[in-house]
């Protein structure tokens, strides 16, 4: 399946002033001075292409700072005038869209807490009817690819063709090193379904702390994401929101200097020849792998028939336990990650169970006739 979105390439609406494309600015606009001073230092690095700032902030609990509100648009306009940087804000309802458009905001983004709610996204899309403005859509808080796709479709259906997705990580019940789990496989799936859709990564919200941001930023670029949105504050120690994850403009500049921008296709023909040769070897091995898995499945089916004819249960826990243990340690001896080997086997086992279930059910169907 491919996603049928009508999308203009990123470089037709956003020309990065520096590689990689970085959108930066404070988590929240707090005061005019804080926003202007941060914007000034960011612009002076020469490495920032767009200035961001949150002015309407969805907060988990009431009583927290919920953004400075519409006055922040005036400050953003001043920052744009002073630095020449295009500006972007998060919008979470139709009124936000109207105010942001009236203020001349260059790019809008829909936040993760809005993407989860189709009513909210539709309200935003309705307010965007007939408007030509770029919109970036963050993934929903929960790992639900359809919700993310649905939000992109709603905005696209409203006529917005300057569209991008932002990968900001997903909430998880389990504690981990990240504030939001990157779950890259979801972003990769989105890119596979819609290769023309630009995807930008938001390492600040994935990490939740400054220390991991360089690692996640590099990883995002290596996963072919087209840009980064990183929070930056003139003095993160006194930031009103997300203090732990914001970087000073100079720390951000340093981080950008240490990133390596890699290309998907090698420019050097010697490198492409070598890659092609190695890929041929992979192709051969993959063919063998598939053949062997198919052979294994036909034996599984024979066992299934035998179980059906002798009233033996499909699942054989002892046998399965033994397989997992033996194969995982064999894999380890061959330098395969134990978790990887286990996951791969679990996938195969699930398919064995599915096939044997089908075989069992065939008998029931026949005997009932
Ligand atoms: C193939 C069998 O059935 C199931 C599938 C297994 C497998 O895929 O290796 C192992 C144990 C069973 O849960 C079996 O009983 O041996």
TrEMBL record:
One of the entry's Gene Ontology molecular-function terms is: transferase activity
What is the residue range of the signal peptide feature?
none
Under the heading Pfam families, the entry gives: CM_2, DAHP_synth_1
Q: What is its EC number?
A: 5.4.99.5
Q: What's a GO biological-process term for it? A: chorismate metabolic process
- Tell me where in this chain the Chorismate mutase domain is found: 269-360
Q: Which InterPro entries match?
A: Aldolase_TIM, Chorismate_II_sf, Class-I_DAHP_synthase, CM_dom_sf, CM_II_prokaryot, DAHP1/KDSA
Alphabetized, the UniProt keywords read: Transferase
- Keyword Amino-acid biosynthesis present in the record's keywords: the answer is no
What name goes with this protein? chorismate mutase
The record lists the organism as: Pararcticibacter amylolyticus
């Amino acid at each position: 399946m491919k996603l049928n979105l009508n999308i203009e390439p990123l470089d037709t609406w956003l020309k990065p002033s520096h590689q990689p494309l970085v959108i930066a600015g404070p988590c929240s606009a707090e005061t005019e001075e804080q926003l202007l001073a941060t914007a000034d230092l960011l612009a002076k690095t020469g490495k920032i292409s767009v200035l961001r700032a949150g002015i309407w902030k969805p907060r988990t609990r009431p009583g927290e700072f919920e953004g400075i509100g519409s006055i922040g648009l005036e400050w953003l306009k001043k920052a744009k005038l002073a630095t020449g940087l295009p500006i972007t804000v998060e919008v979470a309802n139709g009124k936000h869209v109207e105010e942001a458009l009236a203020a001349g905001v260059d790019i809008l983004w829909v936040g993760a807490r809005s993407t989860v709610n189709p009513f909210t996204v539709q309200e935003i899309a309705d307010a965007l009817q007939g408007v030509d403005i770029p919109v970036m859509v963050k993934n929903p808080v929960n790992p639900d690819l359809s919700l993310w796709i649905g939000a992109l479709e709603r905005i696209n259906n409203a006529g917005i063709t300057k569209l991008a997705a932002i990968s900001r990580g997903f909430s998880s019940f389990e504690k981990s090193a990240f504030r939001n789990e990157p779950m890259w496989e979801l972003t990769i799936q989105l890119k596979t379904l819609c290769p023309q859709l630009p995807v930008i990564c938001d390492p600040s919200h994935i990490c939740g702390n400054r220390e991991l941001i360089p690692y996640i930023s590099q990883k995002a670029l290596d996963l072919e994401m087209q840009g980064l949105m990183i929070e930056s504050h003139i003095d993160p120690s006194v930031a009103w929101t997300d203090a732990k994850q914001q970087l000073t403009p100079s720390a951000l500049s340093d981080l950008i200097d240490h990133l390596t921008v890699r290309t998907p296709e090698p420019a050097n023909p010697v490198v492409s020849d070598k890659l092609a040769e190695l890929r041929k070897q992979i192709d051969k091995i993959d063919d063998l792998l598939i053949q062997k898995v198919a052979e294994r499945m036909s034996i599984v089916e024979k066992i299934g028939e035998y179980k059906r004819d002798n009233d033996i249960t499909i699942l054989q826990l002892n046998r399965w336990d033994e397989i997992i243990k033996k194969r995982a340690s064999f894999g380890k001896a061959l330098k395969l990650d134990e978790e990887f080997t286990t996951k791969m086997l679990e996938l195969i086992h699930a398919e064995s169970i599915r096939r044997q279930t089908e075989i069992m059910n065939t008998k029931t169907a026949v005997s009932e006739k």
